[in-house]
Amino acid sequence: MHFQSIKKMWLKLKRTYIECFAPSNGDGDFHGCVTDVLQNGEKLTVPIYASFCSGFCYEKDQRQLERLEKCPIKGKKHEITPELARSL
After folding, report:
1. What global pTM score does this model have?
2. Nearest to 66 by CA among 30, 27, 20, 34
3. Nearest to 13 by CA among 59, 56, 52, 54
4. Per the domain annotation, does 7 fall within a domain?
5. Would 47 be classed as within a structural domain?
6. Number of domains in the chain
């Protein structure tokens, strides 16, 4: 890929990410989830990103990104202490 096309793609991604977190949007307040249909027909929704907006940066597979949705229940984000982070 040519440098200019990579830079253009990166700037577009950055703009999408910033717009996602805009207070007027509210998407940044939700976790990012995917929903699968189980064999019995019931749906299972699982959070996979701490923020819905993070999926735009971390998900490399476009098909998976298209499955990303805001979690139906607004979860609570927990911060970890620096001591715990060092031990991981």
Report:
1. 0.66
2. 34
3. 56
4. yes
5. yes
6. 1
